[in-house]
Structure formats: structure tokens, C-alpha cells
Write a structure and sequence with these properties.
Blueprint lengths: L5 E7 L3 H12 L6 E8 L5 H11 L3 E6 L4 H8 L7 E4 L5 E2 L3 H12 L3 E10 L2 E5 L6 E4 H8 L21 E4 H5 L13 H12 L2 E13 L12 H16 L8 H22 L6 H12 L1 H9 L8 H12 L2 H8 L2
Parallel strand pairs: 1-2, 1-4, 2-3, 6-10
Antiparallel strand pairs: 4-9, 5-10, 6-7, 6-9, 8-10
């Protein structure tokens, strides 16, 4: 029996209410030449048993069970089982449109693109939000990528809009390309982990195909795979920033440095506000932590280089000023007003 064209890796952790919809959407694909690797990451609800039931009913499904280690750990554990020419991911609380893999695999096979990207829909409590790439549909070779895509791949020029979203689940990657980068992601990173894989793979790809369709449905209100905003997030930021800065070759892609500065500012603003809001009273420990974070070299550099006026939202601009100039008391004041 020949290897499948596509391997789909699905990390699973305590998502029993959503899992059937997710797996049924994969079964409903009009494209059939795929395998599914279900990675039960130590679920304590009925998710593991549900995965086993799908593996028993359909030979294209394989279920592996492991101790809980987080999303990165689950993806890395599933990858060695993937035999497809291309590999993709689905988060187990999301779902996909029936024609997703037919369209994206056809694009990969017809053009030889090393990566294929599609648009997606963020499903929120307030309604659906269409999220599209900044790039026109079609195939981009290396010269076109360097001219049109890479200069605005992470930061499109509007705060904060990605040129290409960092998510892994709306992309197919040639297996060899993904193998070089997936297993190097530190297990401690729980937010921003997709960027450490997808952006490096896209930079290394010889060609990328962008689809115009919205195939993936991301359940943004779900908390099954999210991470609490505690002080550990600040340490995780350090690993995320240092890994990105240490992996991307700025001599080859000098425009990536500016984009990463904006990305670091964006991630810090997402993190600082909830973390320091949760530290009641603003005592000495909170102040020392704030000043230490502001002095972190990647953070300090990013807030020095990003134009404050380009940051969207008055409160975000005020927070950014406080971080740039290490104004702890003023930062605490804005947190409660």
C-alpha cells in the first residue's frame, strides 16, 4: 500500500464536546488520499476513547496516547507517524470545510509548491470573522516571495495585521520542510508556537501557493488549548522572541528585523496587561518584574524602534510608552483607568 498524499495531525486534549464535529469534518472531505494521526495528550475526559472509536471504524485513522505535555509536545509526538508527502494540522476544537484538502492538495500537486495556505473564519461569540491573507491568490516562486511576500509576511504595515497568519492549521507543508523545523520548537512555548514553525518554513520554502477560499473554521472562544495569562507567560515570551531572533537570518532577510520588532511589541502588549492586572496591589514584586521585563534586550529594542503612533488603540499606545520608558506607576494607573 502506497503512502498517502496528505497526513493530518490532530492534537487532542479534553475537547469531548467539540471532537466529533472536528473529526467528522475530516471524514467529510471530498479528497480521500489522507491519513489522520490523533494524538491524545493525556485527556481526562472521553476524548481518548472517542479517538479510539474513529481509529477502529476507519483505517486511515491512527490514535496514539501519551502523557499530557501540551500542544507542541503532541504535534511533535504525532509527526514521526506521518507518511504523507504533505503534512497539515487541525486543532481538535475546530473544523474544516468539505473541499479544503481537495483544493489545497490539488494546488500542491499541480504546482509543486512546498507550502499551500488558505484563508480561515474565526468563529466567535459575537459572530464569524473572515481572516484573509494580504497576498493575492496564486503561486509565488522564490523571487516573487522575496519581493512581494517576505517584506510584509509577519507585519503587513497595519497594527496588527499579519501578512500571512502564523497558524499551522490553514497550511500544508511538504513533509521534509516541516521535519526540519517542527521538532526544534521548545516545549515551554504555549503561545506563539505556531510562528516558530510556520514563518521559518515559509522563509525556507522554494515556492508557496495562496488559496483565496476560507476553508478552516477556528473556534476562537474555546479555551481547550489556550494558556492562562500568568507570570509564566513572560518567561515564555523570552523563549519565543529569542528563538525567532536566533533562527531568522537577517543577512538574508534584513526586512524581517523590523517586522519582528512589531511582532514583539504586539505579543508584549497582549501579555503585560493581563499578567500585571492579575498581580493585585502592584507591590514591590510586581514593580521589579515590570522593570526586569522592560529591560529584556529583545523587548527593550523593539519598543525603542517601533513608532508608538503606529500602534492601534489609545490604551495600547499609553502602555507602550510606559514600557519604553519603564514608567511602572503610570502603567499601573492606566491598568485601572
Amino acid at each position: 500500500m502506497s503512502n498517502p498524499f496528505l497526513s493530518v495531525i490532530v492534537p487532542v486534549y479534553n475537547v469531548e464536546p467539540y471532537l466529533t464535529q472536528c473529526l467528522d469534518s475530516i471524514l467529510s472531505q471530498t479528497f480521500a488520499d489522507f491519513e489522520v494521526i490523533l494524538v491524545d495528550d493525556g485527556s481526562t475526559d472521553g476524548s481518548g476513547a472517542l479517538c479510539d472509536s474513529y481509529a477502529e471504524k476507519d483505517g486511515r485513522f491512527l490514535c496514539i496516547h501519551k502523557e499530557n505535555g501540551g500542544l507542541v509536545s503532541a504535534r511533535q509526538a504525532g509527526f514521526p507517524y506521518a507518511k504523507g508527502q504533505y503534512v497539515t494540522f487541525v486543532d481538535s476544537d475546530d473544523w474544516i470545510a468539505p473541499g479544503m484538502y481537495a483544493r489545497m492538495c490539488a494546488a500542491a500537486e499541480e504546482t509543486g509548491a512546498e507550502a499551500v495556505c488558505c484563508n480561515y473564519t474565526a468563529v466567535t461569540k459575537k459572530g464569524d470573522i473572515l481572516c484573509r491573507s494580504s497576498f493575492s491568490a496564486g503561486l509565488y516562486d522564490k523571487a516573487q516571495l522575496e519581493e512581494h511576500v517576505y517584506p510584509r509576511m509577519i507585519y503587513s504595515g497595519s497594527y496588527f495585521t499579519y501578512g500571512a497568519a502564523p497558524n499551522l492549521w490553514n497550511k500544508l507543508f511538504r513533509r521534509e520542510l516541516l521535519a526540519k523545523n517542527l521538532c526544534h520548537v521548545p516545549l515551554t512555548v504555549k503561545v506563539g508556537e505556531d510562528a516558530l514553525v510556520s514563518y521559518i518554513c515559509l522563509l525556507e520554502a522554494s515556492s508557496i501557493y495562496f488559496c483565496d477560499e476560507y476553508f478552516y473554521y477556528y473556534r476562537s472562544s474555546s479555551s481547550s488549548l489556550t494558556h492562562n495569562m500568568d507570570q509564566n507567560r513572560l518567561a515564555e515570551n523570552h523563549v519565543l522572541f529569542e528563538t525567532l531572533l536566533g533562527t531568522i537570518d537577517f543577512s538574508l532577510y534584513p526586512y524581517m528585523e523590523r517586522q519582528l520588532n512589531y511582532y514583539i511589541v504586539y505579543q508584549c502588549l497582549l501579555t503585560f496587561v493581563p499578567v500585571f492586572s492579575s498581580m493585585a496591589g502592584g507591590d514591590g514584586d510586581s514593580r521589579r518584574l515590570f522593570l526586569s521585563e522592560c529591560a529584556c534586550p529583545p523587548v527593550k529594542k523593539a519598543f525603542r524602534h517601533v513608532r508608538i503612533s503606529s500602534i492601534k488603540g489609545l490604551h495600547n499606545r499609553l502602555y507602550a510608552l510606559c514600557i519604553r520608558y519603564r514608567l511602572y506607576r503610570l502603567f499601573r494607573f492606566f491598568l485601572i483607568h
